[in-house]
Amino acid sequence: MVPMHILKGLATFTLNLAHDQTAQSRVLAQSFASKAADPKLKERYATCAEHYDHAVDDIEDGKNYLGKGDYNGINTMASAAMMEAGDCLDSFMQPSKDPSVLSDNGKAVEDICSIILNRK
């Protein structure tokens, strides 16, 4: 059995990684929204920035739940952050597709949140 302090350290590391990746995705989306020439892409990037803003808040809430030992709360917040990233990715399934690295970052956010949800 893995000691609890090691599991908590791993959870902290993973939440910090998710936070950093999500914050980076938000900055990218904001930057792309300000520079996009295509009005549809501009709107989608702006919407993605909002989704990632919410996801950052969700992950910060997850960190607070970790501090309280509320693992169901962590799962709820990781799931919410994953959904926000997914909503951004889904917006680019139709034309005009995202030519940037934002989709890769969004997929990374989903993958990291999935790790949080699948911890045992």
TrEMBL record:
Recorded GO MF terms: pectinesterase inhibitor activity
Keyword annotations: Disulfide bond, Signal
Keyword Protease: no
InterPro entries: Invertase/methylesterase_inhib (IPR035513), PCW_Enzyme_Inhibitor (IPR052421), Pectinesterase_inhib_dom (IPR006501), PMEI_plant (IPR034086)
Occurrences of domain Pectinesterase inhibitor (ranges): 2-119
Taxonomic superkingdom: Eukaryota
Keyword Glycosyltransferase: no
Family: Belongs to the PMEI family.
Identification of the protein by name: Pectinesterase inhibitor-like
Natural source organism: Cucurbita maxima (Pumpkin)
